[in-house]
Amino acid sequence: MITIFLTFLKIGFLGFGGGYAMLSLIFQESEKLGMTVQQFADLNALDGLIPGPIAINSATYLGQLYGGFWTAVAATLAVCVPSFIFVPLFLHYEDKINDNWVLTAILDGIKPASVGLILAVALSLMLLTVFGINGLGEWAKASLDWTSLLVLGVVFFLDSKYHVNPVWLILLAGLLGGVVYYL
């Protein structure tokens, strides 16, 4: 329980750029706990279905997965503690931060880094889902999963052409996956 608490405390302190940008850090730290890429894909799917912040949902899921109810509570609290520290400090010093060109430049640099982290997570999930591999180093073992590619295409088409609500797209993708892979 202590290891998971400290892991999510670290994630809470170091996570910048929002929930999707934090997924890369969550994955790196959770790999040390023994999480597989498939479990990470499941976590990412649950994050899309369950309302609430991604970091909190991830902490709760992984805490439950690796230690049960009380570990889930500890992990959830750990990922929230840094916000309880930083938000009041930021609000107190907001004017000084906005007037400081160095801090503004640092925050401006975090924005593209966050996009890069989100793209890295998206690439990892695509490699697992569409090609069945855990990273570019396994490219020789890759095999195209046409069914996953078809589901991706249908969802992309419905989103781009008809702007279907993402909740419906997630439910549709889950239904298609359930029908194709388990029936």
Structure description:
This protein is mainly α and 183 residues long. The protein folds into two domains: 2-139, no CATH class; 145-183. Helix content is 81%, strand content 0%. The protein contains nine helices and no strands. The protein has helices spanning 2-14, 19-31, 37-49, 54-67, 69-92, 94-99, 101-131, 146-162, 166-182. Helix 1 runs antiparallel to helix 2, helix 1 packs parallel to helix 5 (69-92) and helix 8 runs antiparallel to helix 9. The longest helix is centred in the middle third of the chain and has 31 residues, at 101-131. The radius of gyration is 19 Å and the shape is globular.
- How much is the radius of gyration in Å? 19 Å
Largest sheet: none
Supply the number of structural domains: 2
**Could you tell me the number of beta strands?**
0
Structural class, please? mainly alpha
Summary of the model, kept short:
This is Chromate transporter. The chain is mainly α and 183 residues long. It has helices spanning 2-14, 19-31, 37-49, 54-67, 69-92, 94-99, 101-131, 146-162, 166-182.
